[in-house]
Amino acid sequence: MDRKKKILIVDDEKTNLKLLSAILAPEGYEIYLAENGFEALEIVKKENPDLILLDIMMPEMDGFEVCRRIKADKTTKTIPVVMVTALTDKKDKVKAADAGADEFISKPVDRTELQIRVRSLLRIRQYQEELMESYRELERQNERLRNLEHMKEELTHMVIHDIKNSLFEMSFILQLFLKHKDRFSEKQVNFLKAGIDNCEHTKSMIQNVLDIYRMQEGKLRLNKEATYLDDIIDQTTEMFRLSLELNELNLNVFIDDELPPVEIDRVVISRVLSNLLYNALKHTPRGGDIVIRAFDNEDSFIRVEVENEGDSIPREFREKIFDRFEQLEMREKGIITGSCGLGLSFCKMAVECHGGRIWVDDREDSMGSRFCFVLPKGGN
Q1: pLDDT tens sequence across 322-333
Q2: 6-109: which CATH number, 3.40.50.360, 3.40.50.1000, 3.40.50.720, 3.40.50.2300?
Q3: Neighbour-count burial for 166-202, b at 16+ CB within 10 Å, e otherwise
Q4: How many Å apart are CA 237 and CA 231, to the nearest integer?
Q5: Which of 159, 163, 269, 338 has the highest Cβ tally under 10 A?
Q6: What is the CATH number of domain 222-380?
Q7: b vs e for 331-368, b when ≥16 Cβ sit within 10 Å of the residue's Cβ?
Q8: pTM score of the predicted model
Q9: What is the CATH number of domain 142-221?
Q10: How far is CA 106 from its chain centroid?
């Protein structure tokens, strides 16, 4: 059952209080009466009425001041205030509006007009309260979602921590076996090395997940330093040497002489190159070629290209391939497979964090893919 609406009537003349009360009480409202501004403010504080009928001309504290105080309080400012006045000067109405009054009714009061105005304002007040309650409920839901998100993050980090520990243990065991490689055949040794490589790549994938989240939240700190890309390219390609041999792939590296340094986070850009090289390795047919180039782009950037043979990426998917939310369609069509989508998303965010850009370019023979990225030269 809905509660009765509370109406406060404020007037220093008892005759007016009785008249207004007699008009509104039969409508089913709970009526409160105040003969001055101070008494009115006390009732407002205690009862929080749904509407106030306020006379302007009162001793000690007039209706303008009462209205100003009500509207200045954040707990009462939404209560509709109707000024009841015999004043006809437009300046007084402007003054009342400046004080925060919501409506005006002239004396002598017309019964029907008063009832209609009160109903209308109470209806608006009801809508406001429902809207505020919806807003508060939305805030409560958001708070619950934030708590769930925090719990999810903690759980994700716990799971990732456990997986990384398991991978570390697995890699450690494989490396122990590898120390006694003279006891194994060449094929078995290669399997051990491949297992170690897979452990390292899986750890890199997990790190991609963490770093994508950190970059989205602005929490990833880049430790930039002047770096020569040929060092990073040499280190990264060496990590893939065995995988390239097992897949019978040819790797060709072309780096410009006297390439200027770039200001980068070595670890992050190494992982960009590693992701691109892993992507090329997966999509290159056995016996195919992979090419890495690094050269001065003749502007403020150094350009790096990772090119592989195989199926090319259709033009309409070249922008989408870096967006992990656009990759479902591409997976269904076989354009990307496995985890490369996540790795490419990391590459895009990491390169852009360095002030660079990454894209897919055409190969001259239109067969295969060429991933390109540029990084600002040192000091730019």
Answers
A1: 876 555 566 666
A2: 3.40.50.2300
A3: ebeeebeebeebeeeeeeeeeeebeebbbbbbebebb
A4: 10
A5: 269
A6: 3.30.565.10
A7: eeeebbeebbbbbbbbbbbbbebbebebebeeeeeeeb
A8: 0.53
A9: 1.10.287
A10: 53
